[in-house]
Write a structure and sequence with these properties.
disordered C terminus; about 0% strand; mainly alpha; Glycerol uptake facilitator protein; disordered N terminus; single chain; about 300 residues; globular
Length: about 300
């Protein structure tokens, strides 16, 4: 059958550009507003506590997903992209493009924020009699530290576990609110809000320990900007690599394996139950059909990506 030609025929040729634009733009928005919230809190006391900063991060991520998910898969996080590859939702060949795009967006956002707040940073350091040769609250805007509060006692192992567990939870939520096998998931219109709120909650819990990086691109790129700006060797250390880069990647990959090998299979066989009786409801055939439909749609989506 002859194929008709329209604007959609050019999509394969533009796919890489769409992915780059989606991940770059979304990660830029996330880092600009999120790290910007950290900056105004640290320098000007514009916000109080992790909840307010966490809400900015959560709302920003939801907005960024809404703005770009038609272009890419709206990951904005190498840990999430790796998890999608491990879980069979993203072709491995696309992983370098996703990670490169995310890192580019984070780097530009961190650079833009330095341009906006550099004078304020210098004023803050001068007021405290500090220089850029030592760690300070101002340096932590671009170079995350642990512990993030004076009262916390956080070892490198504890910090790595906090980051890894945080990303594990985040990836589990992403799978749970987007996979067709979960009949209890919210609709596609609401899923970004729940993902953003998950980030807010994680920042409230993990933020006081490690500043809740939860994202290798969000952590590494601002560190590079910080090093270029003058913080030099204090911008990154071996411990930072383990805590903020390796641990989130391990947490994301582990969550993908757990969801696809345990949780997804449980969803596919679990009957719909009545809350009143605890017994299989009369709607079980319809529920099971919906589960099978969702699983089939996911399988077709994977085949299309491959």
């Amino acid at each position: 059958m002859p194929q008709t030609h329209d604007q959609h025929d050019t999509y394969p040729a533009n796919k890489h550009m769409r992915i780059f634009l989606g991940e770059f733009t979304g990660t830029f928005l996330m880092c600009f507003f999120g790290i910007g919230a950290v900056a105004v809190t640290t320098l000007f006391s514009a916000m109080t506590g992790p909840f307010q900063v966490g809400m900015v991060w959560g709302l920003t991520i939801a907005i960024a997903i809404y703005a770009t998910r038609n272009l890419s898969c709206a990951h904005f996080n190498p840990s999430v992209s790796l998890a999608m590859c491990v879980g069979g939702r993203l072709p491995w060949r696309e992983l370098p493009l996703y990670v490169t795009s995310q890192c580019a967006g984070a780097f530009v956002a961190a650079g833009a924020l330095w341009g906006l707040f550099a004078d304020s940073v210098q004023a803050s350091l001068a007021k405290g009699g500090l220089t850029m040769s030592v760690s300070s609250p101002a340096s932590s805007i671009w170079c995350e530290v642990f512990p993030n509060t004076a009262n916390a006692a956080v070892t490198p192992l504890t910090a790595a576990c906090a980051e890894g567990i945080g990303v594990f939870i985040l990836v589990m939520v992403i799978f749970s609110v987007t996979e067709g096998c979960n009949l209890g998931r919210p609709g596609n219109a609401l899923a970004p809000l729940f993902i953003g709120l998950t980030i807010t909650i994680l920042i409230c819990v993990i933020g006081p320990l490690t500043d809740a990086g939860l994202n290798p691109a969000r952590d590494l790129m601002p560190r590079i900007v910080g090093a270029l700006a003058g913080w030099g060797s204090i911008a990154i250390s071996f411990q930072d690599v383990i805590v903020y880069l390796v641990a989130p990647l391990v947490g994301g990959a582990t969550a993908a394996l757990y969801f696809t090998t345990v949780v997804e299979r449980a969803h596919s066989v679990a009957p719909a139950t009545s809350e009143a009786t605890g017994r299989a409801s009369l709607e079980e055939p319809a529920a099971r059909e919906a589960i099978q439909t969702g699983t089939a749609q996911t399988s077709r989506a994977r085949e299309g990506e491959s």
